[in-house]
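Example record for the data management plan.
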Amino acid sequence: MFGNYLRITLRNLRKHKAYSLINIAGLTIGMACSILILLWVQNEKSYDRFHANADRIYRITCNASEFKAAVNPAAMPDGLKREIPGIENYVRFTHLTTTLFEAGEKKFEEKNTFYVDSTLDQIFSFEFAAGNKATALDRPDAVLITEAMATKYFGKENPLGKTLKRNNSDFVTVTGVLRNIPANSHIQFDFLMPMSAIAQQDGDLRENRWGNFNFYSYLLLEKPLADKSVEKVNFEKKMDAIFQKHQEGFKVKFQLQPLTDIHLYSNLQVDLAGHGNVQYVNIFMVVAIFILVVACINFMNLATARSARRAREVGIRKVAGALRLQLIMQFIGESLIISIISLLIAIGIVFLVLPLFNDIAGKSIAISFIDGKIWGGLLLMAIVTGIISGSYPALFLSGFKPVKVLKGSLNKSGGNLVFRNALVVTQFIVSIMLLVGTVVVYRQLNFIHTRSMGFDKENLVYVPMTGELWQKKDAMNAALKQDPLTGNYTIINELPTSLITGTIDVQWDGKDPNLQTIFPSIAITENFIEVFKMKILAGRSFSKDFPGDSSNFIVNETTLKVMGVRLKDAIGKKLSMWNMKGMIVGVVKDFNFKPIQHPIEPLILHLNTWSGGYICVRTTPGNTEGTINALRKMSATLNPAYPFSFDFIDQDIANLYKGEERLGNLFNIFSALAIFISCLGLYGLSAFMAEQRKREIGVRKVLGASVTNIVYLLSTGFTKLILIAIVIAVPLSWFAINSWLESFAYHIEISWIIFVIASVAALVVAWLTVSYESIVAALTNPTKSLRAD
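Corresponding structural encoding:
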């Protein structure tokens, strides 16, 4: 039976090449797009699931005065383990640190370095290529490196037992080599060193502090805890109570975040970079479904358009004794064969475009030839697509009455008109929603790139103050001032692009004792405001003419709102931070110092008198390269043991939104392809209508109707369907884009013009698509249209 279906299908494909090409093209593109999207979704949902104990690992997060962060105190994990039953073990990570490593002639600054507890292997399942994972982090001079780093520093030599010079001072010994960290791990690193190596230098570790939140901590529980379960709620209450015993009065709530939720559900501050967003996963899942639905509708419309050509075949088969169920199975079988053919071509396309897709998406997705789940899923997609696509044509064609068909009196407008029109309206709804989404995504990304940050981000180059630079600050300042290319500079402890520090230890007269707002801060030098071209709203910037500025402060507008102080009353207002007592000498206009997903927070600026950070220079237009060379020479003179490195503020800001930009590009590409498939469907419907009404068109032409009259006649029905689709699509698309934009603290306003543009575009695309078949029908010789079939 299947062989018979296959022969009939292949014969029809050869006989009607144009129809076959359009039909298979629509399904192929739809499947290829859906496969790529589903591979991306699968990758996003696979994060951290490779760990053997993934379902029992939880990260401790906190919420202090609506400041949600991924860090906690150094002493907390051990304190919890001692007091709460059910905790098997824990491991802590520091923030990523930049470390200089040297092996022979090879010397590099590495930015992906963690200090970690020796319990790492008891919690996580990072795979070792060499070394004893149980003891690899026991000695304080140990270092674990990945295979990529082993090759980078030691080539083909066995790295175990070899030494690396660290920060031009001490030596560390390679005690283990890890397989390269999987791309679907939210923890990415190249080097790991034991926490014991910094236990005496780090005050939090040395004094076992509960007040500073500087560590990422993971607990291994004896059993998984269901989200929002009583056990989980009670566990979190116990964490809060234990913390209060050590930090009474500090209002913080702690949560257990499942390891497998971190990548997609971490809208937290002070977090590791590179997280995804479950909202984007849901959006692309919907887009994948939309594309497949549109492809299926396309197939149905094209199959229905050819119904008259197969009516005699149905009639003859019924006269010969074929049952309707057999005919239904035949047509669905044909649909399944076409669907499988489309799937095979789609898989080939996916393999060809996957490298480009990975480049656009920033992924390293691959299709495994031995993964039965993937191939089973693809086959299931083909079967479901084939059944859905073929079901309506099968029911429609198998319902023809043989007597009417063989007499030539078949009602060619048959079929469920309401259902068919509903399919077309669905296509338009999808098209309009995708068009609206494309416009909004483009405008929001453009808004991000062009929005004023509150300072001039262009022409700002910075150099990390590594090695001896801070110890030679006087010589460094003199060198910077003497060179006209570097004279416009400031030294800051953190870059004003994504601050991770904050304190509640801020006091002022009249402060509500229950208020525990977190205040980020930046340590700056006197000319910070001028270098970054910020606006002082009241008072002044710091100045060497005022020695007392070493204990004074500049605040932003939001700080005044938190303090309940008016701008005109701010200057001279007493303020203290970390027991450093002074007063407000200036108010700076609010500026973004975190990604625009976060609203502007209160900020305190104070003089950088105790720490280094970054030399930030504003270059003059056309002299950027010369400025970098001047900085390179200074670094070679003052800090010869460290390699020179630099970067740009505007590039850092662009990197903050690289994920959104990549997803925006993917959305636009898939939207364009979905609209293209919709056009194929519209073409199919126009062909159907033209074929059903060809005698009517012939009669009208004989009676003197012009080509314009006939094209207008055939297009009128589409216009009505489009208007219905617009009425449905506009509120749906408004809800969808509003939900997406709410993830940004600052975003574009949803304008009615967006919906007008999308609606008009849908109309134009539909009319252009339909016009071809309408014009062909209008130009056909009426004698051919009126001739008996």
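Summary line stored alongside the record: The first strand starts at residue 57 and ends at 64.
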